[in-house]
Amino acid sequence: MELRSKYSEIIKAEAKRLGFMSCGISKAEFLETEAPRLEKWLKQNMHGEMSYMENHFDKRLDPTKLVSGSKSVISLLLNYYPSEFQNKDSYKISKYAYGTDYHFVIKEKLKQLLQFIQQEIGEVEGRAFVDSAPVLDKAWAAKSGLGWIGKNSNLLTKQVGSFYFIAELIVDLELEYDTPVTDHCGSCTACIDACPTQAIVEPYKVDGSKCISYFTIELKNELPNSYKDQFDDWMFGCDVCQDVCPWNKFSKSHNEPLFDPNPQILEYDKKDWEELTKETFNEIFKKSAVKRTKFDGLKRNIEFLKK
Fold first, then answer.
1. Most C-beta atoms within 10 A of its C-beta, which of 22, 65, 211, 248?
2. How far apart are the C-alpha atoms of 214 and 207, rounded to whole Å?
3. 238 is in an annotated binding site
4. Catalytic pick from 62, 131, 232, 243?
């Protein structure tokens, strides 16, 4: 038992050294409470056209089916809260997409962490995940004591907020496990009241198919006219439910240079975005998550927002 505790300690210390905000560990096992919740959410079609959510149902709920022989899920948080923000008279981009695409940044850190574990502890097999595989990131992070799932369905952490990425290493090593923390949303309904499209249909339940992030990033067809004037000038993603969350008044800016934005993202106003060319799009968003919408997708979103 002492060895597990020692291993957990050195893994957490190395995670901190690599720049992660925090690290929590839980036992790799079937997510019993999540199973009926996920099944119901899918049955109610709250994933819209995100059909990939229906795939690998069993793997989503059981990491041992995803990584054979896995014993532990190491959950990690990486801060992305910026120190500077977009021009007030601009179409808005979700803060997580200001800098280099987080998949690349985090994957590299996870690779280093796994190498460290193998060097320090010995033959450990594992896989790194950054929301690119059927892993329920928020559920694992909550199980590992890194925060609680808030009414906006984001992971929230006391004294920190929610402007961070969540990632995992699933390994075949037994470690000391952390315990979940209690919910601190209380009677607050700030996120529910502020959501421009009423996507938070009840506390702790978000209809993904009504979310501005879904419309501006995932939806490939035309944007529905019934939502005209409800997007609050968001052209990529949406931060409203995080911006109004009282816990986010504790957010401190990140210290990851790769998350620093291209200056044009901060400087551009609405007119600049409306005149965006494909060349400029490729230049500004060369390594950005905004590339997911492609140039045509972003132009579609901007056209939809124009009064």
1. 211
2. 10
3. yes
4. 131
